[in-house]
Every structure is written in structure tokens, then in C-alpha cells.
Request: fold
Amino acid sequence: MADPKWRRSFIYRFIPTAILISAAFFIGSAFIVLDYKQKYSRLRVVDAVEMTKPNICENQCRPDGSEILPSGIVSRTSDLEMRPLWGPRNKKKSKSPMNLLAMAVGIKQKNNVNKTVMKFPANDFVIMLFHYDGMVDDWRDFEWSSRAIHVSAVHQTKWWFAKRFLHPDVVSEYAYIFLWDEDLGVENFNVARYLAIIKEEGLQISQPALDPRKSKVHHRLTARQKGSKVHRRIINSSVARKGCNANSTQPPCTGWVEMMAPVFSKASWRCAWYMIQNDLVHAWGLDFQLGYCAQGNRTQNIGIVDSEFLVHQGLPTLGGSAVNQKNTEAISEASQNGNLPNGGAMAPSVSHQPNTRDKVIKESYIELERFKNRWRKAVREDKCWAERISNH
Ligand SMILES: *[C@@H]1O[C@H](CO)[C@@H](O)[C@H](O)[C@H]1NC(C)=O
Ligand SMILES: *[C@@H]1O[C@H](CO)[C@@H](O)[C@H](O)[C@H]1NC(C)=O
Ligand SMILES: *[C@@H]1O[C@H](CO)[C@@H](O)[C@H](O)[C@H]1NC(C)=O
Ligand SMILES: *[C@@H]1O[C@H](CO)[C@@H](O)[C@H](O)[C@H]1NC(C)=O
Reply:
């Protein structure tokens, strides 16, 4: 080992090899770096292209199909305002933005619907009626009928109509959307006060409380609390984890309204509209998920207004949510008597069959299961959803 000759020859042979190897390595890595840089800059180019491509911002500026038009001519949204064929349009007297009252109605509830509509002043509300019994002309004797929008489709539900005729781009002018049943008692309801309260309280989704003495109340959360202005939760259990307590975050303890008289802000409606399924027309289960549309904390942004309240008559009509109630008492009672309350409200061809109601209820339960399964599947498949809601 100590042989200096061997060592010298090793050094002579080793050094050039080492130089060669490191040169090769250096050149190689230079190529790699170059390659990487090229790739990287290509990526950056792609990134840049993607940033300027359709994405969210561009979608807003250029709706599908409008790319070929100069953007200044594109009207993205519309409204339900009727226009005169000539001359100046009727100037709106109040300065606040318009709201919308939409109801699914049948002629049998005509008088009740009139009472409800009369509570919504023409200056602040567009009225839209969804006729599920095809009877449109019979409403003409009401003074307000000619300024209401009438949509008729036989045997369809409130949610079917809402999905098709209340597209968020068409109702984007309206600050609040009242999507109400036809069987509500409005004696103790003042819409101006109601609007003032939900604005002040920041309620994105709300409903007037139900008078528990006169209504069929299915969930204590929506029952009126006397002396209160607004409530957002109920507490019916002192034992943690049982019933509803101050820590509950979910329906039916908090963050929830029923479907007979919901009121949506513009933003929450935009979200809710997407949640309505085209084929699940009874919309069972939708109410429990609406909290996602609350534009933030559902326990804060969803509430029940106690000082303006309703009576829910609970008539089983397509325009009422008795069909949407898990309580089938009234219905089975009625079908036993062979006399459906308000049966004519459904199509005559259907209503004389005594078990129509039962069939509708059964279908609603089937839809509920479908909706739940669909929701679970959607959550499973959307890998980014959890992240999106936690950032929300
Ligand atoms: C509609 O309701 C209003 C207010 O309740 C009432 O004054 C009016 O007479 C009703 N109209 C008809 C045609 O019944
Ligand atoms: C609510 O949560 C807090 C903190 O976890 C707990 O101390 C309290 O006992 C809970 N209250 C009820 C009513 O469960
Ligand atoms: C509390 O209220 C909720 C919602 O109405 C109900 O589901 C639950 O059974 C009630 N719990 C108790 C202990 O009363
Ligand atoms: C929502 O609001 C409630 C009541 O103010 C609060 O206790 C809760 O922590 C809030 N939740 C979130 C997720 O911010």
C-alpha cells in the first residue's frame, strides 16, 4: 500500500477519470436543468393561458354561447317585470329593490291566496302564481291578477315550478324570494315589518313562525315563541347529546326552516336553486341541506321570525306542503272517509281515487331516500368539496 509508484499511477489514472465523470455529470445536469427550465416555463405558459381562460371570472363575463357577441350587448340576467308595449313604463314608487312572491295555487284556495297576495304591496312585490290545476282564467276577478305572472302546468309541485321558472339569472333583481304554500293564514303577518327584521338580523333563509295553537306544527323549531322577535334554535334537553341544546348545530334544532313558507335572500336562492333536483319534485330532504346555502354560519343566518307569524292550515294540496309532511294523519283520515280535503285541487282525474294521497306520500318517501343517496354519492365523489366548505 505504501508503494509510492502505485499511488502515483492511481492518481494519474484516477484524476482524468474523475474529471471526465464530473464533466459528464455537469453537462448532464446542465441538460436536465435546461430541460426542467423549459418544461417549467412551458408550464408557466400553460398556467398563464389557464388563468386567462374561461375560469370563474371569464364565465361571468362570457356566458356559454355568448362568446361570439360583443360583451356589451350581452344581458346576463332578466326579471319578471311586465313592460308596456309603448310609452313610459310605470315608474316604481318605492326606492327599495323589488321582491318576489311565488306560490303554487289551485282554484279551491282562491280566497286564501287572495288574502295572502293582498299582504304583499304591489310597489315592492312581483307576484307569480304557479297553477297546478290548469285553471288560470278563474283568477281574473282579482284586481291584482292582471299584474301577476301566471304559469300553468297541470299536476306539478311548487318545487317543479321553482326549478323551471325561478332560475337565479331571471330572478336576480329580487332581494328576497318568498316561495310560499297556498294554505297559510296571514292575519298576523306584515311583510314590511318582516323584511325589516330579516334585514336587520341578517337572515339569509327564514320563515315566519307558525302559530302553534292553530297550526299543525311538526317541528318545535318553527313554532312561534311568544314575546320573541326572532329565534334561531330550540333547547329541549339539558342532557348533552340528547335532544337540542345550546351546542346543537344541525336541523331540526337549529339552522333550518320548513318548506311551507321559506324566504330566501337572492344569494341563498342562487344556491338553493342548484340543489333542487329536476326529478325529485316533492323535494323531501331538501330542507335539511339548505343550511349549506346560508352564506356562512347556518346557526346565525337561518332563523324563524316570531313577531310576524302564520297559521299553517296543512291542507293536502299540491300547492301546500301537507303532502310534504311526514305526518299522514289528516290524509289517511280523509281517505278513510272517502273524502279528500281539498281533493279537487289535484286534478279531478286523480283526486277521486281515495288512495291518491297515500301514493303521493309513498312517492315522497322514495324521493327522500333517493335524495339522501344522491347527496352522499355527490359528497363522496367530489374530492374538493370538504375543502370548499371548510373555507366557506
Ligand atoms: C281579496 O282580499 C281582500 C283583502 O282580504 C278583500 O278586501 C277582497 O274583497 C278580496 N277580493 C275578492 C274578490 O274576494
Ligand atoms: C357545550 O359544549 C361545551 C364545550 O364542549 C360543554 O362544556 C358544554 O357542557 C356543552 N353544553 C351542552 C348543553 O351540551
Ligand atoms: C327536541 O326537539 C327536536 C326537534 O323538534 C326533536 O327531534 C327531539 O326529539 C326533541 N327532544 C326531546 C328530548 O324532546
Ligand atoms: C356559528 O355561530 C355560533 C353562534 O354564534 C357559534 O357558536 C359557532 O361557533 C359558529 N360556527 C362557526 C363554524 O363559525
